[in-house]
Amino acid sequence: KAGVTQTPRYLIKTRGQQVTLSCSPISGHRSVSWYQQTPGQGLQFLFEYFSETQRNKGNFPGRFSGRQFSNSRSEMNVSTLELGDSALYLCASREGDRNNSPLHFGNGTRLTVT
Amino acid sequence: KQEVTQIPAALSVPEGENLVLNCSFTDSAIYNLQWFRQDPGKGLTSLLLIQSSQREQTSGRLNASLDKSSGRSTLYIAASQPGDSATYLCAAGAGSYQLTFGKGTKLSVIP
Q1: What b-and-e string marks burial along A7-19, b requiring 16 or more CB atoms within 10 Å of the CB?
Q2: Whole-angstrom Cα distance, residue A91 to residue B95?
Q3: DSSP SS3 for A12
Q4: A31–B93 C-beta distance less than 8 A
Q5: Which of A48, A50, A103 has its CB closest to that of B46?
Q6: pLDDT tens, A16-45?
Q7: Does A90 touch chain B (CB under 8 A)?
Q8: DSSP letters for chain B
Q9: Helix (H, G, I), strand (E, B), or coil: what is residue B84?
Q10: For residue A61, what are the β-bridge partners?
Q11: Model confidence over B37-94: pLDDT tens digits?
C-alpha cells in the first residue's frame, strides 16, 4: 500500500496570504489527523477527521481550518498567514475509528512564511 | 491536561551499545503509548504501539515497555547501529482521538 501522501512538500508564502495543504491517507484509512511541528513547541495537534466529520480540534486560532472529503482525502487551510505559522505540517492516518491503532504519518509540508 | 516528557533531549553512544530512552506522562488514563522515529526533514515512522492493557511490545532489536501506574514508558534498543541515529518521539493516546507528544530524544550512534 502507498503511504500517507502530502502535497506540496515545500511552500513559501508571505504574511497575510492563505495556504491550502493536501493529504491523501493510506488506502482504507478513514481517520486523518493534522499536526504542526516547530522546534520550540514540538508536535501539536491541530484536528482530526473521520468520515468527513471533525471529531476534535486542538488549541489553534480559527485561521486554521480543515476538511475531509468522501474519499478520505483531507485539506487544511491557514488564512492570514503569520510569521509564527512557519512549521512542518504533518498529516497522519489510522485504520480504525478509535485511538487504539497506530498512527501513520506522511513526510509533511514545510511551510515558510516571510 | 496530558504532558509528556522525554529525557534526555540528546544522547550519543558508540556503535554496539544497548540503550534505553525514557518517556514519562502525567495522566495515566491513556489508551496506548506509541513510539516513533523521525529522520531529519522527514515525517514520523511508527515503531511500536503498546495498548494500555499491555506491558511491552517487541520488534526486532526494539522493545518498548509501559507502566501506567508510574506514568512511564521506555524504549530499549539493543546493539545500536549508526542507522539508528534519529530523533525518537513517544506519544500518549487518549480518548480524544489525538496524541500528545514528547519533544523527543535525539540519538546519535557513533561508528
Answers
A1: eeeebebeeeeeb
A2: 19
A3: strand
A4: no
A5: A103
A6: 999 999 999 999 999 999 999 999 899 999
A7: yes
A8: ---EEEE-SEEEEETT--EEEEEEES----SEEEEEEE-TTS-EEEEEEEETT-SEEEETTEEEEEETTTTEEEEEE-S--GGG-EEEEEEEE-TTS-EEE---EEEEEE-
A9: helix
A10: none
A11: 999 988 999 999 999 999 999 999 999 999 999 999 999 999 999 999 999 999 998 8
Residue with cell 504542526: A36
User: A55 and B97: CB-CB below 8 Å?
Assistant: yes
Burial of A35 (0-12, 13-18, 19+ CB in 10 A): buried
Amino acid making up residue A20? T
The three grid cell numbers given for residue B74, joined into one nine-digit string:
521506555
d(CA B9, CA B77): 16
Assigned C-alpha cell, B41:
526533514
Cell numbers given for A36 = 504542526
